[in-house]
Design brief:
This protein has 78 residues and is mainly alpha-helical. Helices cover 81% and strands 0% of the residues. The longest helix has 36 residues, at 2-37. It has helices at 2-37, 48-62, 65-76. It is built from 3 helices and no strands.
């Protein structure tokens, strides 16, 4: 009975080490593929519209009602 208990503990240790090694190797491979995938790639995002919307929101919040209507009319070209 003592032999089976020791053998069970040995198997648990071996399985733990094997799973840990597989996880570490998998993480290293995954990290390596991510680094290579983005190599030499430049991403450009157009943020003009977002900045213009934010500027309009700030401008609208700062102006009075009459000034805001006048500003919106000038902005739309009326």
């Amino acid at each position: 009975m003592d032999f089976l208990l020791e053998y069970g503990l040995f198997l648990a240790k071996v399985v733990t080490i094997a799973v840990s090694l597989v996880l570490v190797i998998g993480l290293v491979i995954n990290l390596g593929s991510r680094i290579r995938r983005h190599e030499g790639v430049l991403e450009v995002e157009k943020i003009n519209d977002t900045i213009e919307q934010m500027a309009s929101a700030v401008q609208s919040a700062m102006l009075s009602t009459a000034e805001r209507k006048n500003w919106q009319n000038r902005k739309s070209g009326i």
